[in-house]
Amino acid sequence: MMPFLIAQIASLENRIPLYVYCVGSHEQKELERPQGFPAHQIFLCRSGSGIFRFEDNHTIVLSEGSLLVLPANTPHSYYPEQSQQLWDLGFVAFQGKAALAMAESLEAALLKPVKAPQFSRLWEQLETIWHLINRNSDQAYWEASRLMYDMLLFTLQDISGVGRSERRSLSGGRSPAPQTPQAALAMAVQLIHDHYQDRLLLANVARAAGYSVQHFHRLFVAAYGVTPQQYLLDLRMRRSIQLFGEQPGVSVEKVAQQLGMDASYFIRMFKRTYGQTPKQYVKQQKID
């Protein structure tokens, strides 16, 4: 598993024509993006299968060994094909002045699943990009951008023998509009809900919303009455209650893992929130 990472490259965005916006992989759950995503994305399915649904209710199935190119700002949702099935999904999103042309060059996989003959090589490139972004340095971001370009070219070469779909221009899709503070905060909250189980730094969420950490913090508190950190913690605590109810007999350690938290920290925060430890809570529920 590669926890979701957003690249923090504000100082390089105007200098790199193609750069990594975010990258990761995990056991994918249901996710809805009614406004789409602000960057072009490549999805790689390593195991299982899932369904992508678009604005016109058109659906496609992304299965093991396949990839999909999703244009920026395309409304969509996706979820495992079977609710109990593990859907191992990797993704990398890219932006920059050259991003549109590179994405359009992959028209065979544009909004359409395509088998990747050399899937394992693509996954290795995805993992390398993740490790570079995780280093969080200017040099690593330059290297990740070079590898992103290589990955896109390799993807084009790998699927070039696959039957072409009708050309669908990305430029005909939605064009990004300047975000109001309300829209930016709504997008940040959606990001928190989508990735509460991953490592999610406030700096990453603030950057995705288009603000400095300090300004984002002030806007968030003014809008929601709590800090972003407390909002994330409250979300995790509510989700822990659901997990204990949905998975009878599940261990405290397993629940903490599903929430992206250290077990001892989870126990401490649970007791602070609900006045009892997770084990005491579960025991009480059984008695009731």
Automatic annotation (TrEMBL):
Domain of life from the UniProt record: Bacteria
Residues annotated as transmembrane: none
Keywords from the named record: DNA-binding, Transcription, Transcription regulation
InterPro entries membership: AraC-bd (IPR003313), AraC_XylS_family_regulators (IPR050204), Homeodomain-like_sf (IPR009057), HTH-like (IPR037923), HTH_AraC (IPR018060)
Domain HTH araC/xylS-type: 186-284
CDD domains: cupin_RmlC-like
PROSITE patterns assigned: HTH_ARAC_FAMILY_2
Molecular-function annotations in GO: DNA-binding transcription factor activity; sequence-specific DNA binding
Classification via PANTHER family: HTH-TYPE TRANSCRIPTIONAL ACTIVATOR RHAS-RELATED
Protein name: HTH araC/xylS-type domain-containing protein
Provenance organism: Paenibacillus oryzae
